[in-house]
Amino acid sequence: MPIPFSPSTPKWDGQTKMLRNFLRIVEQLFKLAEISDDRQKLDWLISYVEADIADQWLSFPEFETGPWNQFLDRLKIEYPELTSEEQGTMGQLCRLCKKYSDISLLDEEWLMEFKQRFMYITQKCLKPPAITGNRELVELFVRSLDNSFQDALNTRLSVQGTLKVDALGRSRMEDPYDLEHVIQKVVDLVSGKTIAWALKHTPTIMSRNNKINPEFRGQVLFSKEESVRKIEPNADVESLQQKINTLKTMYEIQEKTRERHKKSVQGTLDSIRTLIQTQGQTQKEIGGPSNRYGSGPSQTGPPRPPRKCFYCFELDHLFLFCLAKTEDERKGLILVDKFTVRFANGEPIPIEYNMSIKDCVRKYLPSSIAVMMWGDPELETCSVWDQEPDTGGVVISPQPVR
Predict the structure, then answer these.
(1) Residue 357: which of 384, 385, 392 has the closest Cα?
(2) For 261-304, what is each residue's pLDDT tens digit?
(3) How would DSSP label each residue in 40-97?
(4) What is the pLDDT of residues 215-239, one digit of tens each?
């Protein structure tokens, strides 16, 4: 027997799910060491666990009086998971299906691993007295597949499935197929007979952001010779057509999303232009001078200097309605939050004396900034329409000439 605390000593970390494996290893060591005495077995077992666990096991009456088998029965009472691991429970199946959820037609390795573990627990659950039936097991297994996989499975079963019948040839609509038959059809779907094989073993035509890769535009997935060689005559036509329809639907969704985004941006720009024109017409109708303080013709005062945009220094608009600012934000050069402007990566924008923010953005643009996706600009109501934006930088004044 291995000496306690040596590298080859069997260890148990206290997790109940590992206790069954720990006891199995210890019993195997007893056979190799030809130890048959129950007292020696118990003493060796206590030496392989931590001190607090050993104290608990030493307090069991079965440790002093009972043989080895009675002590194991006491452990099954103290640790009910030992019995559930041997018999199998519905909780184990539900946790397994939750772990392996949304399996697609391309996840062949993931599916085979799930199938092996599912059948192992199922065999234990079906031992007399069985705790579940064929219908519940089929439902649990099929729910672990994604929607497209389930549709392909339903098509395959409706065409090639074999109904479960009794001695009189009758079948139940609530439980039409055996679990093993359903699993066999699932395995067939992920084999090389379907389009899933072609998609898995060839470069994908869709990029990570669900856009068609440029190198695949105007190209077919594989050549005519390859298609004749790789697709067998008895290929599942329904599954193939369904996969093609799925690809078409994905492409149409992307095109519609791009079109809606384009219309939204154009509508926002049109609203800004209409607002600027409406303000100009309103000022002309009331007769208020645009270059004087106040809003009425009766008010007098010194001529007001022409207003210019703080972003581009042009005189026909304010910062909030600057189209150059909106264009730079769309290109991913800057981030704008009301009257706060930063580079797209969050860094402050240095400002030089008598130079617009627009020019400073292009002069000090970090090389690490990439083109970013931008959302619809939001024009929030603000009582102050002409407020200088905060760029986070320090104004660089010109050096005096000596």
Answers:
(1) 392
(2) 788 888 888 888 888 888 766 666 555 444 444 444 444 556 66
(3) HHHHHHHHTS-HHHHHHHHTSHHHHTS-HHHHHHHHHHH-THHHHHHH--HHHHHHHH
(4) 544 444 444 444 444 444 444 676 7
Taking Cα atoms as reference points, which of 393, 388, 394, 395 lies closest to residue 311? Answer: 388
| Residue 338 three-state SS | coil
Residue 132 token pair: 């579940």
Phi, psi torsion values for 100, nearest 5 degrees:
-105, 55
Cα-only R_g, the chain: 37
Both structure tokens of 46: 């206590």
Report the alpha-carbon distance of residue 22 to residue 4 in Å, rounded.
Answer: 14
Strand, helix or coil at 229? Answer: helix
Residues 38 and 126 in one domain: no
Helix residue ranges, H only, 190-322: 195-201, 224-230, 237-286
CA–CA distance, 105 with 305 (Å, rounded to integer): 69
- Regarding whether 97 and 59 lie in a shared domain, the answer is no
Q: For a pLDDT cut of 70, what percent of the chain falls above it?
A: 74
Would you say 388 and 319 are in contact if contact means Cβ atoms under 8 Å apart? yes
Tokens of 226: 């390859």
Whether residues 109 and 182 share a domain: the answer is yes
Length in residues, the chain: 402
Domain boundary among 281, 305, 329: 305
Q: Which domain holds residue 113?
A: 90-190
Residue with tokens 């072609």: 198
